[in-house]
Amino acid sequence: MALARELSVRESKRNSKKALVVVPMPSLPKLAEHRSGSIQIKGLDVEARKILEKFDADGDGYVDTEELGIVVAELVKTKFKGRLYLWGLAAITFALVMILGCGFGLTWAVLMANKDTSVKNNIWVVRGTDDPLRAASSSYTVRNNVMVPRGGSATSRLAVSTATLTRRVPLGANVTTAELAALTRVHLKSSSGAEAGFVVTGFQEQAGQIYLNAMYGTVVVKQGQVVSSSGKLASILGDFTWNEVTGIITPSS
Predict the structure, then answer these.
(1) DSSP the chain
(2) Distance CA 187, CA 194 (A)
(3) Which of these, 27, 86, 35, lies nearest to 56 by C-alpha position?
(4) For position 121, what pLDDT does the model report?
(5) How far is residue 188's CA from residue 165's CA, in Å, rounded to a whole number?
(6) What is the pLDDT of residue 24?
(7) Who has greater pLDDT, 219 or 60?
(8) Is the full-model pTM beyond 0.70?
(9) Residue with more model confidence, 151 or 187
(10) Cα distance between residue 4 and residue 11, in whole Å
(11) Are 133 and 115 in contact (CB under 8 A)?
(12) Which of 39, 85, 181, 185 is the Cys-Cys partner for 248 at CB 3.0 to 4.6 Å?
């Protein structure tokens, strides 16, 4: 019985070997290599590649987890440095403004402390008083109500005189009405050298003669000579021949 079973098993194994046929399998395409937890540098844009290539320590074209940590740490450090630079720049600017402000304030305080004048009611006065500011000349001073030059001894000082701009016009045939209207005084000189003068209060031209009115009479001038006089002026002028008559014109101020 046992022998028959063993023969049956051998027969079945023999038959199974004869039926086994080996079919060759077609070759499959090779799958692209994929690395979990890494970034392929090649697939990024140019700017990103330039940055990440600096952190690709092994040069395999991938940025793995460790290298990504270095990238993040560098970004944090750069951001922190940028913030420090901004705060530092703000602090320097503030310090510069404070220094300039303090310098300006101190300068202004010193100037105000040493200032001898102030303004009260729109009037420039001496500081601490109500006296108006007075202008003084470095070349002249006033002494005994007379303006005199500064320096030198008291006896050598000469009084400063002021000259009035005047113009002398001979009262002849060429004198104009405008010149007669501007006359203030008249100077007379005789052939013998005598001189006289009077203040003109008015005038009149008639028949080639000029009538000059004064406070004490009238003088008639013709062709540059006195031909007659009246009033107290007649006694003052006397019998002299006044052949030089000059009008003095003072410009109105």
Answers:
(1) -HHHHHHHHHHHHHHHHHH----PPPPPPPPPP--TT-EEGGGS-HHHHHHHGGG-SS-SSEE-HHHHHHHHHHHHHHHHHHHHHHHHHHHHHHHHHHHHHHHHHHHHHHHHHH--EEEETTEEEETTS-PBP----SSEEEETTEEEESSS-TTT--PPP-----EEEE-STT--HHHHHTEEEEEEEETTS-EEEEE--EEEEETTEEEEEETTEEEEEETTEEEEEEEHHHHHHTT--EEEEEEEE----
(2) 11
(3) 35
(4) 80
(5) 20
(6) 52
(7) 219
(8) no
(9) 187
(10) 11
(11) no
(12) 185
Q: In what order do the strands lie in the sheet with 167-170?
A: 167-170, 242-249, 183-190, 195-199
Contact call for residues 220 and 210 (beta carbons, < 8 A): yes
* Residue 182: both structure tokens together: 């501007």
135/185: higher pLDDT: 185
Contacts of 55 (CB under 8 A, 6+ apart): 63, 67, 70, 71, 74
Neighbours of 209 (CB within 10 A): 13
